[in-house]
Design a protein that fits this description.
By secondary structure, the protein is α/β, with parallel strands linked by helices. The chain folds into four domains: 150 residues, DNA polymerase, domain 1 (Orthogonal Bundle); 90 residues, Beta Polymerase, domain 2, CATH 3.30.460.10; 75 residues, Beta Polymerase, domain 3 (2-Layer Sandwich), CATH 3.30.210.10; 242 residues, Metal-dependent hydrolases (TIM Barrel). The chain is built from 23 helices and 17 strands. The strands form four sheets. The chain has a seven-stranded parallel beta sheet with strand order 11-12-13-14-15-16-17. A five-stranded mixed beta sheet has the order 2-4-7-6-5, sandwiched between helices. It is globular, with a radius of gyration of 25 Å. The chain binds zinc ion (2 copies).
């Protein structure tokens, strides 16, 4: 029994409860507990043994009791009862983008559908359109969702790959025969989804490295074991490939296996035109095979007359041309970020109090933080009404007398279907700044959705648009929007666009960010943290910004406290 087993069980229970139609907060408690256990560096059996389960964020009495039963007996009565009511195979349907638990429950009740295959067949035969609450559009969307799933399956979220990769890398570096070791592949480029994890090691003793590699405790299966390349499958179902190379080829191998393929093809072509040959062993003179460089990536790029190109932008989207003319952007770094402006507290659906969140932000060295709870109509997430806003303002005012950083009272106000905001103007005026976002009503045409968002962005009180497309990676495709129109509105109305750092959002994505920057958009990077632990997600937002070529100047929450206060005020005056 390990942490992954327990975390998976809790997630399964949450999914089953979701289909059953249980209370939102009860379900969310299971999800937060699953995540806390997944992320905990401590072994679950030790936590149970020492009665320390409740030290983890979000684990209360009821869940702690269930975990204890499961860890001690290998069974959980509650889960067994639940899975008698709802067949487990039905959970596979929840992976389909655009298909939520309510609809899954209906499909099971009405058509007895409990597999993706039978659902696909029913869609093709047009059986869904006559069910109450479905219709032809839904039927088509579900079929599209199935196709999307078929395309993305087998890939992991960046967040999962990153945690697994960093952990493994740390373990490898403990081996004394390692001269140098790094992640490569799409994980080093911080792509939003990752196929498998690549690790490159420089060593003169590959045998010892390979022995150490396969002794990693989180391996489920060894796939290939060789002298210079070994592949394993982790318990978390991610494949890891390790390659060991001599130190003089380390940079060449790292460059080669980092990719992207498109980037490498262009770089190799450039090498050939200059009379060189480039491969994973090094850069060579083409005619004489004389070794020119390979020890570091920097050497190789410089020998080709290029600036060093940061991994995140190696996508053949103009970076090679820019490196040639020494005009690469100075990419944003995580340390440039001075505050997090998208955070939830217990006032709405967060699991930590404002003061806990503020304390955790202070530890990260921020100069300011903004608490943005949901607005009134979002009942499912306990959106705030007038009275609660006053209480929140009072609490923040008191906190600001002693807090080591400045706390702003913000909101994440819903944009209603007609494009108006969920609070009247006088209420919006109570906040230091206003973020807006959509959380309900996703069935809209491209024009309708674009218009809805643009109306919201033009409101004079609005500072930024949260998670602009509303996609959930692997679950919901997000609005099909006229992005250029949104970018133009952002510039005209002085409304920033968010890069949401939450692992399954990363919204806007890298390509949209790059296009937005070209059109003059300014961005904020927010975590959308619903618990202290989520503040860590900032690095994924920053990575997305880097993949979109953003520099410090493009991101509003890199400025100091005085400047951001001016920005909040200025936005209002110019527009209002
Ligand atoms: Zn939101
Ligand atoms: Zn939010």
């Amino acid at each position: 029994m390990n942490n992954t087993d327990v975390s998976n069980l809790l997630t399964t229970i949450a999914d089953l409860m979701d289909i059953k139609g249980e209370n939102f907060f009860k379900i969310r408690a299971y999800r937060l507990a699953a995540q806390a256990i997944h992320d905990s560096p401590e072994d679950i059996s030790i936590l149970v043994e020492e009665h320390r389960l409740k030290d983890l964020a979000g684990i209360g009495d009821a869940i702690a009791k269930k975990i204890t039963e499961f860890v001690k007996t290998g069974r959980l009565t509650y889960f067994e009862r639940l899975s008698e009511e709802i067949p487990l195979q039905i959970l596979s349907l929840l992976q389909i983008p655009g298909l939520g638990p309510k609809k899954v429950a209906t499909l099971f009740r009405v058509l007895n559908i409990d597999t993706i295959e039978s659902l696909k067949q029913a869609c093709i035969e047009g059986k869904l359109r006559d069910i109450d609450g479905f219709g032809e559009i839904t039927e088509r969307n579900i079929l599209r969702g199935i196709q999307l799933l078929e395309r993305t399956s087998g890939r992991s979220l960046l967040y999962h790959a990153y945690n697994n990769g960093q952990h493994y890398l740390q373990y490898i570096r403990e081996c004394s025969k390692v001269i140098q070791a790094d992640l490569a592949g799409s994980l080093r480029r911080m792509k939003e989804t990752i196929g498998d994890i690549d690790i490159i090691v420089a060593s003169e003793d590959p045998d010892t490295i390979m022995d150490h590699f396969i002794n990693y405790p989180k391996i489920k299966q060894i796939l290939v074991q060789g002298k210079t390349k070994t592949s394993v499958l982790l318990i978390d179902s991610i494949q890891v490939d390790l390659r060991v190379v001599p130190i003089q080829s380390y940079g060449a191998a790292l460059q080669y296996f980092t990719g992207s393929k498109e980037h490498n093809v262009t770089v190799r072509g450039l090498a050939v035109r200059q009379g060189f040959k480039l491969n994973e062993y090094g850069l060579f003179e083409k005619n004489t095979d004389k070794f020119l460089s390979g020890r570091t990536e920097q050497d190789i790029y410089n020998n080709l007359g290029l600036q060093f190109i940061p991994p995140e932008i190696r996508e053949n989207r103009g970076e090679i041309e820019a490196a040639k003319t020494k005009t690469l952007p100075r990419l944003l770094e995580e340390k440039d970020v001075k505050g997090d402006l998208h955070i939830h507290s217990t006032y709405s659906d967060g699991s930590n109090s404002i003061s806990d969140m503020v304390e955790a932000c202070a530890k990260r060295g921020y100069e300011y933080v903004g608490i943005t709870d949901h607005s009134q109509s979002l009942k499912i997430a306990r959106g705030l009404d007038g009275e609660a806003i006053q209480a929140k303002k009072e609490e923040i005012k008191r906190l600001n007398e002693t807090a080591p950083l400045h706390v702003f009272c913000g909101t994440e106000c819903d944009i209603k279907s007609d494009g108006t905001l969920d609070y009247p103007n006088d209420v919006l005026g109570l906040f230091d700044y206003v973020g807006i976002g959509i959380h309900t009503g996703f069935n809209m045409t491209k024009d309708e959705a674009t218009e809805r968002i643009i109306q919201g962005m033009k409101h004079p009180s609005v500072t930024f648009l949260a998670h602009p497309t509303c996609r959930m990676i692997g679950h919901r495709e997000g609005f099909d929007l006229d992005m250029d129109q949104i970018f133009e509105t952002a510039v005209d109305a002085n409304t920033a666009l968010e890069i949401n750092s939450f692992p399954d959002r990363l919204d806007l994505n890298d390509i949209q960010v790059k296009r937005g920057k070209e059109l003059g958009v300014r961005f904020i990077i927010g975590t959308d943290a619903h618990a202290k632990e989520h503040l860590e997600y900032m690095k994924f937002g920053v990575a997305t910004a880097r993949r979109g070529w953003l520099e410090k100047e493009d991101v509003i929450n890199t400025v100091d406290l005085t400047t951001i206060e001016e920005f909040f005020k200025k936005g209002r005056k110019e527009n209002g």
